[in-house]
Structures are given as C-alpha cells and as structure tokens.
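Help!! Second protein's tokens look totally different from the first
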Amino acid sequence: MSFADPQTVTISAVTTPLPRTAVAKGSSEYTSSDGLITMKAANSLGNRTRRVLRIDHSKVAADVFVPDKNVVRSMSCYLVFDLPAFGYTNAEALAVYTGFKTQYTASSDLLITKLLGGES
C-alpha cells in the first residue's frame, strides 16, 4: 500500500509537491517535477524487518575548481527502522521513535546541529 499521492516536502520554507513516480513490491518513490528532490519509502522483510523513509536532494552549484561551470551536488537524509521479524509491536516501535524524535528535536534541533558540526 502506498502513501497518499502526491506527497509534499517543505525545505527552506519552499513547499514542493512530490507526485508518485514509481511503485514496486514494498516500495514507492515520489519525485519533484524538476527531478531535484526524491522521497523513497521502502519495506523489506526477512529475519529482520527494515523500513526506510529517505529524501534525496540535489542542487546545481558552481564547481569549486571551475567557478564558471555548474555541477550537480546531492545529499540524502533518511530514517531507518530495523526491527526483528517478531518481538516488537508497531506501538512499541513508535514509542521508541517518539523518544528518539523528542531527543533530536529538543532545543531547536540542537543535537542535529551539533552532529552536522562534527560532534558525537
């Protein structure tokens, strides 16, 4: 089952629609009209259940070595749930995620700001 179509993402106060562009067994992909933003949701089952929500973001920027030439730069940000096939309910996994989210969003995302600055 897929998420609602389209999805949207807001980055730097700009909301971008992401219509569904691909569906496969256990996964869906949503892409912006310019192809610079992609959201992927995937589920794989086995001895462990892996659930992934991922945003890939690209931008066009000047090449640091050839300033008059533009190149595409990209980054990814994703959330992974890695669960045993049995032993955790969805409610228990959600409770762990809620605690995690509360920790990394506290004080205006200070933990993430520090992580991006190289702290551990």
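Here's the second one for comparison:
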Amino acid sequence: MVGKVNACVIISGKGSNLKQIIISSREYNFPINIKLIISNNPMAQGLKLAKKYNIPFKFFSSYNYRIFERNCLLEIKKKKIKFICLAGFMKVLSENFLKTFKHKVINIHPSLLPKFKGLNTHKKVLDNKEKYSGCTVHFVTSSLDSGQIIMQKKIIVEKNETVFSLKKKVLRQEHKIYSKAIRKIFKTT
C-alpha cells in the first residue's frame, strides 16, 4: 500500500498485541507502518520484538510522568508519527499529550467497555458473575478507558472459568480485533 501512515506503539510489558500489529503492518494493504516502539519499562518483553523486527525503540522512565510524555512527543515528532497504538501500556496519557494527536491514539482493553475499566478486569468479570466478557478497541482520552469505542468482540464466560482461562480467551480475541480496528479506522480491507 502506498502512503502508509507512520505509527508508534507504546507498551509496558509482554507485547503480545504488539506482535500481532507488527505482523499485520507487514501486509501490503495494512494502513500503518510501525516506525517506533516506546516503553516505560526497560525490561518489557515487547522491546525484544522491536529488535527482532528491526523497529527503532526507546525506553523513557515514567517516574516523572511530565518528562516521560515530553520525551515521547519529541521522539514521535522526530519520526513523523501520525498515529499511536497503546498495547499493554499501563498509564493514562494526559490531555496535553492527547491534544497533539486528536483521535489518533487508540488502545485495547480486556473487557466490554464501559464495564470494568482499569486493572483486574477478569477478576471483576468473574466476581460479578457476568455471562459475557471480551475486549474493546477504543480511542484514548485522558479519562481511563472512556474514549469512543471503535470495535468490540464478545465471548461467553463459562461456568468453570478462572481468571487465567478467561484472560487467555480474551487475549486470543484481542490479537484478532486490534488489527481489524486499525483497518476500520483507515477504512481498508
């Protein structure tokens, strides 16, 4: 695809969704090209994926969050990034950061938003005896997991479900839905 949009993926951990986005981005007709991976965790497994796929990456400490965001923005501007995906990034971006990328930052969350925002979603789903769970790709706002929903995938919560088994089932769906949501945003097939 000619004219792919330069994208950055911001991570904190394992990077399993990152891997799926990288694989999709290598397809000819996928709308984004990952030009940068940023992590606030120097031990994030996702940084190994950056090395494996030869994608430039940066680590910035988020101890001082204002400095973290400033460093991210400087690097993002340097690489001419126009679109950002959060993949297991465990912080809330500030309004100041987001206004630079109005409707150009997306995230995936392991619940059917607006239910169960934040952490420990699978435990919350089981404690609440929900019949369904799933995942949501949404635009990012400065309010936790509150942006406009782009796409969701629903799964059945089995009677004998555990936090571990539910997490695994939802993650499989996350791997499918994130790239589909990116295509939907850019209206490609």
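Reply: Different proteins will give different token patterns, so don't panic. The chain has one domain: 5-186.
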